[in-house]
Write a structure and sequence with these properties.
Shape: globular
CATH class: Alpha Beta
Strand content: 35-45%
Number of strands: 8
Distance between the termini: 6 Å
CATH architecture: 3-Layer(bba) Sandwich
CATH superfamily: D-tyrosyl-tRNA(Tyr) deacylase
Number of helices: 2
Order of helices and strands: EEEHEEEHEE
Length: 145
């Protein structure tokens, strides 16, 4: 599982003219799923995302977690995180899980985040999405397990 996490002041995802998710302060998560991802890996990633202390405290040090600031999550599926462009001009996506594997894991990831009491908005798996964001920082992390 690969996640590109961005701390945002605002983020919105649209499919066509329809908004499927929007948040203010929180994290935008671009989520890629690979063939050997499982429940244990999802649980690890949920704990990591929820527990990261990436928001500034009164001394302007990154010391506060998502819950400390009343933050939310906008989760967007992103199979291209598993793109391999090391050869040729067109990336290979062979490491990205096929939809029959990835969709249930993506949905389970959303459920596990919500079970932790976090407000979670999302895009639509497999849809052509437009994502708009206003960075807060910017703070961007690559998470992989």
């Amino acid at each position: 599982m690969r996640i590109l996490l961005q701390r945002v002041a605002h983020a919105t995802v649209r499919v066509g003219d329809r908004v499927t998710g929007t948040i203010d302060r929180g994290y935008l998560l671009l989520v890629g799923i690979t063939h050997d991802d499982d429940e244990a890996r999802l649980a690890w990633m949920v704990d990591k995302v929820i527990g990261l202390r990436l928001f500034p405290d009164a001394d302007d040090k990154m010391n506060l977690a998502l819950a400390d600031v009343g933050g939310a999550l906008l989760v967007v599926s992103q199979f291209t995180l598993y793109g391999d462009a090391s050869k040729g001009r067109r990336p290979s996506f062979i490491d990205a899980a096929r939809p029959d594997v990835a969709i249930p894991l993506y949905e389970r990831f959303l459920t596990m985040l919500r079970e932790r009491g976090v407000v979670v908005q999302s895009g639509e798996f497999g849809a052509m999405m437009q994502v708009e964001l206003i960075n807060d920082g910017p703070v961007t992390l690559w998470l992989e397990r």
